[in-house]
Fold Cellobiose transport system permease protein.
Amino acid sequence: MAVTTEKVDVPAVSTPKHAGGNKRPNKYRSALPQYVAISPFFILFAIFGAFPVFFSIWLSFHSWDGIGAMKWVGLEQYNYLLGDPKFWTAISNTLVIWVLSTVPMLLLALVIANALHNATRFRSFYRIAYFIPNVTSVVAVTMVFGSIFSNNFGLLNAFLQSIGLSQIEWLSQPWGIKIAIATIVTWRWVGYNAIIFLAGLQAIPSDVYEAAKVDGASPRQTFWRVTVPLLRPVILFTAVTSTIGGLQIFTESQVLLGDTGGPGGAGTTIVSFLYENAFVKNQFGYGAAIGWALFILIVLFSIINWRLIGGDESERLTSRLRRRTRKEQTDAH
């Protein structure tokens, strides 16, 4: 029997084509809506962030009063800055105020954080109470402290006289001015740093404290031998942020003492000196040079803080072991 085969026409399967022919869709064009959505941030950053930074660099090499034509002077602004005694006085004042405020502030914040961490009642109330000074108006706080440190009718002098001591002209003496400004800074930022320390304390495992207790460590030894070393990253963060903020002190000095900075300019900080030259004397090029000198100073002290507090723990232990070995060898001889 003969078998016959018939040819069946199978319809060709059509492959889908892209709208633009055989070309693949442009991935950048497909992502265009996402770029448009995030573009406002970059546009605002370029206008209000990047442009002022680059313009201030360019401005520091010019002499400009803000109205007339800019005159290229090169490095003359920086050369004059290094020889300006008022600039070095402002640096000295800022560093003294920074030390008087930062060191007690961080120590007090660490003690407060440890107390809050061990507290069993009213934790939320104490946290809010310590953080309120940070969100209070700096101008209002400075005016209140101005009445406290007032020479004639200040509350502090009234207290000194009530206990039989003579009054002190806080806002007329260089050291009194620095103490007043440092007190304002400490009162405002101690609660903020205490909350940061508290967050670091809560991240430490409780097993570490239990092991220290089993080994017979006292609460004081546990605090200095266990808590403080484990809080080193947090301490580094607070030290760096306090350095950045402390070297940019302006409002406290300006509200408390005005444009003069007090007798002999004892309260003139670097930012106050910048404000005086740029916005009072209209020397915008010189003000830009002062700003970049302040930036270099902040970077320098931040690096110092990182080297003293941060760094690699293995390197720290190795250097400590070397010093101990060297001391033992010296004692043996």
